[in-house]
Structure formats: structure tokens, C-alpha cells
Amino acid sequence: MSASVKTPWATDPATAGERRGARRRKGIAGNTLWFWVFVGPFVVGLLVFSYLPIIWSLVLSFFEAYNTATPSKFVGLQNYIDMLTDHNFLSSLGTFTIFAVFIVPLTFVLSLALALLVNQVKIARSFFRSVFFLPTACSYVVASLIWRLSIFNGVRFGLANTVLDWFGIDGIAWLSTVDPPWYWLPIVTVRLWLQLGFYMILFIAGLQRISPTLYEAAYVDGAKPGWQVFRYITLPQLRATSVAVLILNLIAAYQAFDEFYNLIGNVNYARPPLVYLYGISLGSIQDLGHGSAGALILAVIIMIVTLLQSRIFGFGKAGD
Amino acid sequence: MAVAERTTGTPQPIGFNRGAMGRVGLVLRWIALFIAVVLFLLPFYLILRNALSAEADITAPSWTLFPSHLQWSNIGELFKDTQVPMARALYNSAVVGILGTAGQLLLASMAGYGLARIPYRHADKIFYAIVATLMIPGAVTFIPSFIVVSSLGWVSSLRGLIIPTLFSGFAAFLFRQYFLGFPRELEEAARVDGAGYFGVFWRIVVPNSLPFFAALAAITFIGTWNSFLWPLVIGQDSSSWTVQVAMSTFVTAQTINIHELFMAVAVSILPLILIFAFLQRYLIQGVTQSGIKD
Fold this sequence. Notes:
The complex is a heterodimer of chains A (320) and B (294).
Chain A: H1 16-60, E1 63-64, E2 73-74, H2 78-85, H3 87-120, H4 125-133, H5 140-151, H6 159-166, H7 184-209, H8 212-220, H9 227-237, H10 239-254, H11 258-263, H12 273-282, H13 288-313
Antiparallel strand pairs in A: 1-2
Helix pairs in contact in A: 2-13, 3-4, 3-7, 3-10, 3-12, 4-7, 5-7, 7-10, 10-13, 12-13
Chain B: H1 2-6, H2 19-51, H3 55-58, H4 73-80, H5 86-117, H6 123-132, H7 142-151, H8 158-162, H9 169-180, H10 184-192, H11 197-205, H12 210-226, H13 229-234, H14 243-252, H15 258-289
Helix pairs in contact in B: 2-15, 4-15, 5-9, 5-12, 5-14, 6-9, 10-11, 12-15, 14-15
């Protein structure tokens, strides 16, 4: 991009009236031009890498598309019917549901608890905040490897089994035990470790926005410190943050892929939707028709759940 | 600690208690905090311990707290292992992280500025078209995006890893909101001096917005460095693996060398630990400004 820029209003016509008219005309044309200089590259990229893929995928979902992105055999709604009656796809939605039941409330409660703990300490507050935030530096791959190879590896030198051994309990093959489903423990704890600090930061920001006068008023009015103040002052004041945390968390949970893929792999007992869709559309047979249909079904589910959740919690009515 | 906690005259936000009950509560809270710190730091301890241990120490039946002999040679072993191209993967991740972050910020900040400041009849419609992409869950689009990228012939290339991730509707949205709140007087002054939109943006707006850029850059870089699904989909050839894909492949290799893999983990998180050490202020700003980013 050149540094010598001709400004839209730097015109030099003869008369004053002419100058004003020309300036306005040139100004509007110049504004339009400059608007596109600034916004154009972004919009073009968005069209190619956001809109085009979605439209293409919508088209593919109505075709039989094995190993090809330019299919010719139109199958109507068959891919959708197949996916909605596919036992594996439905059970992946079930896996997700169990996962969400664990992860969403646990993340909410624990990240709020951490925020409250960190917010009330008087010394070394930034040290504690940093410690809880630090796992954000690790990827899901890194965390999954630590969990899989060092903590929950299911053999004797694993940390979890070492601890069990101290209490005289036999070791457990954490990731492959289906009954009882021990594999949920590593899967849930790995995500908790990675994301609690992130949501804690959101809650701390929310806590710091609460006006101290509210607490003073509650104190004067004789509210019991502790639970009562928390229940009637802190929690209602955190409403906007809480809604954001719940929604973000649920959307993120629907898109769980990394830790399932790296901890367990593509196995049928614990396979969330994205791992299944990855397997059918980018595995040995690239079935892009069914993969596209499944991805669109998942997208619609996520959007509906998000809207419902916003409606239930009254997003936007919270005031901030 | 207890003394520091009790020298206050004004009501405490949470758990302001006096008397025996308050004392007990205080002790319980410190215990909870201490346990949480241990649990959160435990995985970092495991990285260090395993990365610097000999394989036999790791797989020994009784737990060795820390290796008696720090095995620094694990670093050399990692980079010499031909099964996993670690050096190449680090290079790829660095290129993807730096170019991806710079490109994303450049495109999104210019788009955000145009939307916030340059009058244009259809600006609203374009803004809505950008915001609409936020409704679509990101990870669901990996199959359609793969289709587009593969028809461009960009599979297993750095282009394929970087370019499709550059157009973040969310970043453009954040920049627009930020520039709407930018003090207009600064811009007006430069205008009077004859600068156009381009000059005002680069000479006035950007230099005065560096903390905002730093905050977004920090979280964007971390997100890019740590991302896995897209690099996995695109990196079908080992020459285009990022560090995350390389480590993931490492685990499924025929023989797992735990000490080597943990050295890889340690090396891979080092750049991010440095960012945390020096840019934490911006990072925390970035998280609170853009809580929606996953």
C-alpha cells in the first residue's frame, strides 16, 4: 500500500460554490472508495472462506459425494434422513449431552468459586490469579498428553494409580473402562483444568464491576455476611457475566474435539459429534455428503440451543 | 494472613465475617486456595519431571518425585528423532502464529475502522453480514472449509493453514466497537492538517491504540499456536504439521518415548509461557474484552 495518499477533500477548484459542490461529490465518491479500501479485503475473504463453504456444504448435503467436492448424483434429503437415523451419529449427540451435563455446571460453579477466592485474598492476589490462568497457555493436545500418558495412563506408574496404590486400591484403566465409565473423569478434568482460569477472569472482571455501595447498603440493612450477601447481592449483579459464561461454555462443549481425539480417539463409547463427523468426512472414505448434512444438523442444534438459553436466561435484559 | 484479612473497616465483598465462625471460614478458604494451587500446578510439575527424566525413571513402579539426574540430553534426542519432525513443526507453528496473528489484526482492524468511521450507504448491511458469521459455530465449518481449501489446492501447505483463518468476523466486530469509542478530536486534528483516512488511521489511530492491539494479538497468537482441528485437517503431509499435530501424531507412533514426548510438550509451551510472563496484563485485558473468543 502506497504512502502517498490523495485525500478526498483536498480539491482545488476555481469558485467557492463550484468548490463546495465538487468537494461533496468527490467526497462521497472518495468515501465509498476508501470504505472499500478498508473493508473490501476483509469482505472478500469472508465471502470466500465463510459464506462460500457454507453454501457449498449446503449443496453437497443434497448430493451423494464420496471423495469428491463436485458431485453429480442428487439424493434430496436422503443424507439428512441417514444421519438422523444413524445410530452412531445419534449416540455422539448423546455423548455430547452427558459431557455438557458434567462440564457446564462444574465449570460455572468452580470458576465462580475461584474468582471469589482470588478476589477476596489481600496478599499475592496476582500470583493466585496467574496460577489459575496459566493453563490457558496449554493446548488441548498438551493437556491431553499429560492426562493420557502421566496421570490417567491406567498403568502402575501413572499418577492416579500411584495415589490409589497409597490407599491400597487396585489401579484402574481409566480411559478404556466403560463399566463403570471411568473415562469421563479424565475427559472432564482435562477441560476443567484448561478452561477454569479463563472463565475465572471473566467472573473477576464481573465482580470488580459491582459497586461497593451495594455491599455497604446490605451491611447497614443487616444482611448476614457470607451466603446472604452472596445470594442477594453478588449473584444477581453477576447475571450478565453468568449468562455469557454458560452460553460460551455450552457452545464450546458442542464443539469438543481435541481432548476426545487425543485422549481416546475415534471409538464408539465416547465419541462427540465432531469426532464422528471428522471420521466420516475426512477418514479413509471422504463422505462429504453425509459429513455436510451432519455438520449442518449440528450447526442448527447449536443455534437453537443458544437462542433458547438466551431466552431462558433473558440475555440482553440484564442491563450491562 | 489472617491478620491481613481482618484489618479492614469497610464491609468486604464476600464472606466478611467476624468471630469464631469467620475464623473457621477464613482457614477453610485458605485451604481451598492452597489445594487449588497444587492441583493447577501439578501438570506443569509433570511436564518438567518427565521431560528431564530417563525413561526408566518414569516407568519405575514407585513414584520418583524428581529425577536424581536431570537428563538434559532429552532435548537433543527430541530434535534428532526422525519419526517426528519437531524442528519443522516448530517453524511451521511460528510462521502460522506470527503471520496468522498479524494478518488477522491487519484485516480486522482496517475493516473495523472503515465500518466505524467511513460514511457509506450500505455500511450497515455489510456490518450485519459480518456479524451473521458469528452465529455459525466455528468448528462446524471445518468440513465445508476443507472442501474450499482443497479445491484451491492448498491442502498440506502453509497457505492453507493461514489464509482461511485470517478473516475473523469477531475481531472485526471488536475493532469496530473499539474505534467507535476512539476520541474523534484526535482524528479531526489530523484531518485539518490534510491527512486522509489512510493517513489518519496509520499515523493517529493505530499508534494510539497499541494496548488494544497488543491485547488482541496476545490472545490471537495463543489461539493460533494451540489450535488443533484445522491444522489436523489441512496438515495431511508431515512437512506441514504444526507442533500440535506433530505431538498428537507422536502419541500414536509405534513406540512412545514418554520422556521425549514431554520434552516436546515443554518446548511447545515455552513461547506461550514467555507471553504469559511478559504480556499477562494485555492478555487479561484481551480475555475480558473479548470473552466470547473460545
